[in-house]
């Protein structure tokens, strides 16, 4: 029997995927549950496993090429005797529909392919597989590193999501100090997308510039997979009626608190995310979303923070249950998310489960901006940089205080101006007068 391996849907928004690498070559024996190919989805590289045992007879879509979700990317022969027949079938299919021209996905999805089932199981999603398999889940980088260092993956315990073996596990097995987390890159300004990693309102070292794609004068550079996902999300956002509300917040108390606890690993991103999460407890409407003429209230507060990717595009790692985490655990979780986001090792639920988003351009000296509302959310908060301002004090004198401008973008179908204003007022009250409570 000859079976097709299809391009799986690795996320709800994915319409096509790029082949990063083939872990098996034509003619190789493939075991059930073994990784065959690594696919780049919207925002991560994922291992795709075979649900059947057989031989990789023919690769239809080569590494570096793109295929639409549901299209065949390879043929799997049940026996060696069927390999030649599979190659002929692949040649006939390629002649009819060139792999370089991805077909438009059918409106109704076909039956779940073996690759999709395997990926769903890998991500912890429910699926009707015959039974749970005892198998390795290894990141592409870890697999490559294990080959270079000659480490037996079967001897390792994965520390990544769902027991996934990551590069740090391989390095630890050889006694090598795990590679430090990459320094988060700065943001990409709207309207291309929401923005990146939040920096401290207080003056800090100059932020690194985002890595630019190789530009050739006079030529059009195609968008990568992540950038195409951003385009789709932003176009979808244009269908939502939105409005913006701004507020000025004095950051001196928050800056002072940050200086006191940053030596313990606390980040300013963690402090701001925690402050927003605590405020959202009082304003569940700002954490909700519109759904079919209804307000969908969320069962948890998941704060997403936009982060620019070095090769273009951006991703929004999510601090799930941010209001329930202490500031130290939250900051450690954020550092881990950013590190794995840079190496495209986040699981889908770690970047698509946000209920409220933060975006920041303050590290560039931007004092205010408006962010674009992400699909499926009711609000996003844009944070500008803090700077000294001459202000009138309560006793009628002049003084200097550090202030930052924040602008919130809301879905007007469910959140009205008074709701947004009340949220910003309470956020300012927390930052200006109750910052110490963020460490409790």
TrEMBL record:
Enzyme's top EC category: transferase
Keyword hit for Acyltransferase: yes
Region span, Disordered: 94-134
SUPFAM superfamilies (alphabetical): CoA-dependent acyltransferases, Peripheral subunit-binding domain of 2-oxo acid dehydrogenase complex, Single hybrid motif
Pfam families in the cross-refs: 2-oxoacid_dh, Biotin_lipoyl, E3_binding
The keyword Nucleotide-binding appears for this protein: no
Lineage: superkingdom: Bacteria
Lipoyl-binding domain residues: 2-77
All copies of domain Peripheral subunit-binding (PSBD), residue ranges: 137-174
Official protein name in the record: Dihydrolipoamide acetyltransferase component of pyruvate dehydrogenase complex
